[in-house]
Amino acid sequence: MSMLYFAAFAVLICLYLGYYLSKCGRPILHAASESCIAKNLMESCPTLLERFYPSLLFVQPDMQSLTAELRQYFSVPAPEMVSTTITLEDGGEVIYTEPIRQSGKVENRLVAVIVPGYTGDHNTAYVTHLASLLFSDGIWPVIFTDRGKGGLQLKTTKFFSAGCNDGLEAVLDKVMDLHPSSYVTVIGISFGGMVACNTLYQYHRKDRIAAQILLSTPLDSGKCVKRLGEMGRAKFLYSIPFGTRVTKLLSENEQVFSPCPVKREIYKRISSTKSVSLIDIDSKFVAPMLGYSSSDEYYSDICLRNCFKDIDVYTVCINADDDPCFPQELYPLDLIQHNPNISLISTRAGGHYGFAGLGWPFKTRTFSDNIVLDIVSMIRNQLPEESMPFKQFSSEGQQHGLLGGT
After folding, report:
1. How does strand 402-404 pair with strand 93-99?
2. Cα(395)–Cα(343) distance, rounded to whole angstroms?
């Protein structure tokens, strides 16, 4: 009997090792055939040339996704930071958070504005961890916190959406005014990547924007929503838990919706719904509150495919093929490979903003941490004189549309 148990255990080990090895490999870089981005990334980002070995304990995509939640226990020490509230034209409030300035210190040439995920803010561990890494690498981090998050009370009925965000525009304006000789890179995480891309697509001061980096961002909202709405782990492990968090945020601001009968009724519809998912939040609250006729119209308006057709901001997307919310088969490669300003770095493993490598959590830096630091270092090394607008990267020759992946 003991031999039978041993044989069964050996089979399980072999199956697990086979599964693990299928998740290992070099990242793949997708870009337009005439793009010069690929060569710059391959030459300046050593992480792209390395095989990514996911954590043995967190190789499964849902476990990978869990690592972002565990950041509060495994992260680098954060610098001392200060938060400032900005009041918008309609009376709403947002926050920008940055390290405390030291007099006499040379100003950083590159500022990184971090846009957190759906319920993230300047206190969220995965956000402060990234800010700390950037700060240690000589990049000035600024964290954007949207309306109603991070302890902010909603002042108006305008709740955060994935479309063009007036709060992010105000923070970018403020950053550029405070750092007149610096350039800005925007880093959007998950939902925050949609906010960043839709905002930069219409932003009026693009000459000071060096690039945007989108981490585990749903690049096609329509397909992502369809997946989250299907019965399965994407719905029960991601859509419903996040919907519950958003409902809690709304319940803390009930008084804002009371004066207006129409908006009070919209609020009651979502607050009385049991087991609220992100789909419910969008269809019963966000879409009607923002004036859309339906959630389908909202999703069509915020879909990044609209931006990817002709966006002129240098854009790097970083996604995992096994992301439970936005897997490989949903990548908009048709648009990415036709716009020379966009590139997509994909890995076989990583889940939804996990990317925990071999040795995690004892090695606190993940693949996404390393590749982001590589990219911002590349950008910093190619910054023009401070009086010049930032131009897209240049290099000689043309690159293939698909690189890496061995």
Report:
1. unpaired
2. 15
pLDDT at 406 over 50: no
CB-based contact 87:389 (threshold 8 Å): no
Helix axes 295-302, 221-229, angle to 10 degrees: 140
- How confident is the prediction for the chain on average, in pLDDT? 87
Residue-wise pLDDT tens digits, 323-332: 999 999 999 9
Q: Which residue has the higher pLDDT, 316 or 236?
A: 316
For the entire predicted model, the pTM comes to: 0.92
- At 172-198, the pLDDT tens digits run 999 999 999 899 999 999 999 999 999
Residue 378: C-alpha distances to residues 46, 193, 195, 303 (Å): 11, 20, 24, 28
pLDDT for 215 beyond 90: yes
Nearest alpha-carbon partner for 253 in 118, 147, 148:
148
